[in-house]
Write a structure and sequence with these properties.
Elements (H helix, E strand, L loop, with lengths): L4 E8 L2 E8 L15 E10 L3 H11 L4 E6 L5 E7 L5 E5 L10 E8 L2 H10 L8 E2 L5 E6 L5 E5 L6 H4 L15 E7 L3 H12 L13 E5 L20 H12 L2 E5 L2 H12 L9 E2 L5 E6 L5 E6 L37
Parallel strand pairs: 3-6, 7-10, 11-12, 13-16
Antiparallel strand pairs: 1-2, 3-7, 4-5, 5-6, 8-9, 9-10, 11-13, 14-15, 15-16
Length: 342
């Protein structure tokens, strides 16, 4: 058991990443995170109600080209993969039941040596599932975190769907982003989960040990539902169920990295027919420009600009339309939107 833990919360966007560091005492002997054969996030899977609507969003609005389908034994499409880049994908599966809260089916991580990783995690007492061949042709095993989130680990191998398509979409233009920067998970017991991810999985401070700079966010609630206008009152019994549903959709999300948030915002607005409020760009607590949009079933796509905004306070809003001075918050932590004169 890891003892004497110092819990650290790193704010990212309007949510937070939970991380844990050892502050002293005796702990289990583990392989350093840098030695874990993990490359980064491979893909995130969302449950959807309608594949056609999901295609219209992820391909038509976000601009991710459809890479391949997985079909079941009857020939029916069981999932669709959209390419962020040669190594990263968003998968959707038409398995969402009416009223179901959890729309995120799994987060998948790429390994450079799956057998070694499986042995290391077995030694750490994580009870990983057996290595099987997934429907995409890659070997994969699963670990379930203390909150019940499914975490899969795979290794791309010759002949799999992903490796056969490598380089095919390199010339495809129009993707809002070509880097899946992070994934969000819903948790309730942050301390327990933080210890699991840091001490067991080796995701130090939420960061994966690979070199691509990816990480995971773990929160129990998320103020990014404010991007849905008008925002819902959590204390109103008439809208409480919808508020809870939107919270789950906001927490269980993907983060896509961009170099120009204005260009990304304008492209999303044009393709999706969004209002200015739906693509409101603001500076998050992480000091990065952010835009949040939602798929037809309410799962959030966070767009984050790479550059750090070290002179603008959090909740600064980018003026809609043509370039104009940013709108500074009048109250710390409160988005200044919409002004009465707009």
């Amino acid at each position: 058991m890891l003892q004497h833990l110092l819990l650290m919360v790193v704010l990212l966007g309007s949510g937070s990443v939970m991380s844990v560091q050892r502050a002293g005492g005796q702990g289990v002997s583990t392989v350093p995170s840098s030695d874990l054969p993990i490359v980064g996030i491979a893909h995130v899977t969302f449950k959807v109600t309608d594949l056609a609507k999901a295609r219209a969003y992820y391909q038509g609005v976000v601009g991710l080209p459809e890479a391949f389908e997985i079909k079941d034994s009857s020939g029916k499409t069981s999932s669709v993969f959209f390419s962020v880049n040669d190594d990263q994908f968003v998968e959707v599966t038409p398995t969402l039941k009416p009223g179901e809260l959890t729309r995120q089916a799994r987060v998948v991580f790429e390994s450079s040596d799956l057998e070694k990783l499986h042995s290391l995690y077995t030694a750490r007492g994580l009870n990983p599932g057996k290595i099987n061949t997934g429907p995409d042709g890659n070997p994969v095993f699963r670990i379930v975190d203390p909150e019940g989130n499914d975490l899969d680990f795979l290794q791309y191998v010759p002949g799999s769907q992903q490796t056969k398509l490598r380089g095919k979409f390199a010339a495809v233009s129009g993707r809002v982003s070509t880097h899946l920067l992070h994934a969000g998970l819903m948790v309730k017991d942050r301390a327990n989960v933080a210890s699991f991810y840091a001490a067991k999985l080796g995701f130090t401070q939420g960061r994966l040990p690979g070199s691509r700079g990816e990480y995971i966010e773990m929160t129990s609630s998320d103020k990014n539902t404010e991007t849905k206008y008008p925002p819902l009152d959590p204390d109103n019994p008439a809208t409480h169920d919808q508020y809870v549903r939107e919270q789950h959709g906001a927490v269980q999300h993907i983060g896509l990295e961009v170099s120009d948030i204005r260009a990304a915002r304008d492209l999303l607005q044009k393709r999706g027919g969004f209002t200015d409020l739906q693509v409101r760009a603001h500076v998050g607590n992480s000091r990065h420009w952010l835009v949040h949009v939602f798929d037809p079933d309410g799962s959030r796509t966070e767009i984050m600009e790479t550059a750090l905004q070290d002179t603008l306070p959090p909740m600064t809003v980018m003026a809609p339309g043509a370039p104009a001075p940013p709108i500074l918050p009048k109250t710390p932590g409160v988005l200044p939107w919409p002004p009465l004169d707009w």
